[in-house]
Amino acid sequence: MAEEDVYTKDGTVDYLGNPANRKETGTWRACPFIIGNEFCERLAYYGMSSNLVLYFKHRLNHSSATATRNNLNWSGTCYITPLIGAFVADAYLGRYWTIASFSTIYVASLERINYSGISLFYLELQISQGMTLLTMSATVHGLRPECYSKDHCHPTDGQTAVTFVALYLIALGTGGIKPCVSSYGADQFDDADETEKRHKSSFFNWFYLSINVGALIASSVLVWIQDNVSWGWGFGIPAIAMAIAVVSFFSGTKLFRYQKPGGSPLTRICQVLVASFRKHKVEVPADKTLLHETADAESNIKGSRKLDHTKEFSFLDKAAVETEKDDIKGTGDPWNLCTVTQVEELKAIIRLLPIWATGIIFSAVYSQMGTLFVLQGETMDKFVGNSTFEIPSASLSIFDTLSVIFWVPVYDRIIVPVARKFTGHKNGLTQLQRMGIGLFISIFAMVSAAILELKRLQMVRNNNYYDLDSVPMSIFWQVPQYFLIGCAEVFTFIGQLEFFYDQAPDAMRSMCSALSLTTVALGNYLSSLLVTIVTSISTNNGKAGWIPDNLNYGHIDYFFWLLGILSVLNLGAFLLISKWYTYKKAIGTLR
């Protein structure tokens, strides 16, 4: 092997800061530690979130609509805070130290940590007590709501406040992990090496599988513990899982490859906007090779390859036009003159936004698993067969997880090779084709949920079951809607993970991963907004509304139909946008 082939060509280094050796770092040898961290973190997250709507309703005494809104708002915040973690990763700390820091923030208080001159002083703020505080709010006398029976508690305003403070501290902690872990795993495969690049697509599939194995344990074992043992243990075990996640991640330090942070991506974006506005009267030359770019093989952005010029959004090209004023000043002021690569970074982000927007409706559909699906299941027969074992309604999400666990290897080992024969594409399907199939499948998940609720309400009306806590219809009739969402996830969410990583500029990959995660946040907020709107409208003139406390008097089937219609319109928009999309073209290497 030639000496230049010993090292990666994507600019990655080892933990000592030396060029990363292909045979000693990265690839699948490093991924188990990253996947292990994600498995434990997701077990912790879903261990809290899967049953949270019932904790709000039964322990904090919230109505069905309020519990649904509060759960959606918190879940949404967990997917907004990644923008903070992503900015820190891309601009300052890099993905490794951002994951390490926020994983620790997630779980327990730490002393000051110093490494390679980086002082992580903010860990002393004890934000990390979020999970500990949540556990205490469910166990410690004075913090725990006083309950007279399993489902009838009387929390004080202070006790409710403690719970929400704990939850939003956790949301802050998870913000540094979510946008970086998948990107960091993908960083372990050299984009400039075709063999490693092929493995990268497979990594995203198995990475998402690990998420769902964690979710499987959370939605079965932990939910059962919360319902049948105690909320203290139900919240305490996730805290232990996060401690294991931290240990797993640090264990792989010597095997990891590290991308150097490229400086503030927001600053570079603003520089392009300012420079193009200042030169709004300047003509862009017909010969695009005359636009400003570094003469070196590498771009002037640390950790980023050069990007080829694209025709769209030509107004922004003005930022890269060299003028006499630029020559006279000779200062290379980036607020007056930007490189083509810097301009193309902004163009890449703009092209991603329409695709990003179509993920919001899908995420609103996905969010129903933690809200209305759970409340729907509460009104059904939860006993398994003729036994006395009662399955918690939140545990039905196990079938979503099983669906993902089933479809990931099927997609990776069967669908991809078969599709490759017909399409000739190295991954079988393009990322956009994969996402579109998932959007299509999600429509049927809402149709399935709506039909089930329609049948359940017919049983209620025909037999006058209005005042029964649960009707004699097995909760396992919910399995199809969960299974369909799981199938849709494998196509849309994994495709989205890979798409936003692959199409992101090299020095903005954490930011773009965070951008993709905000669709989940906005999906939750959209669902919360829809709940608020339909509750306000449907309860006029003293009516029970679509989502009353007693769902036997409601019509959540209407809500499912509403989401189904929005999903059809969203799919149409996605197909139009996909035809317009232009893929990013990176040129050159970083070594």
From TrEMBL:
Q: Name one GO molecular function term.
A: transmembrane transporter activity
Cellular compartment(s):
Membrane
**Gene3D superfamilies linked:** MFS general substrate transporter like domains
Taking the first listed entry, what is the main subcellular location of this protein, grouped into a coarse class? membrane
Segments spanning the bilayer are 206-225, 231-250, 352-374, 394-411, 432-452, 482-501, 513-538, 558-577
Q: Name any GO cellular component annotation.
A: membrane
* PROSITE patterns, per the entry: PTR2_2 (PS01023)
Out of the domains of life, which is the source? Eukaryota
What is the recorded membrane topology of this protein?
A: Multi-pass membrane protein
Q: Which UniProt keywords apply?
A: Membrane, Transmembrane, Transmembrane helix, Transport
Q: Which InterPro entries does the record cross-reference, listed alphabetically?
A: MFS_trans_sf, POT_fam, PTR2_symporter_CS
Does the keyword Lipid metabolism belong to this entry?
A: no
* GO biological processes: oligopeptide transport
Annotated family: Belongs to the major facilitator superfamily. Proton-dependent oligopeptide transporter (POT/PTR) (TC 2.A.17) family.
* Record-given protein name: Protein NRT1/ PTR FAMILY 8.1-like
Organism annotation: Populus alba x Populus x berolinensis
Lineage of the native species?
A: Eukaryota, Viridiplantae, Streptophyta, Embryophyta, Tracheophyta
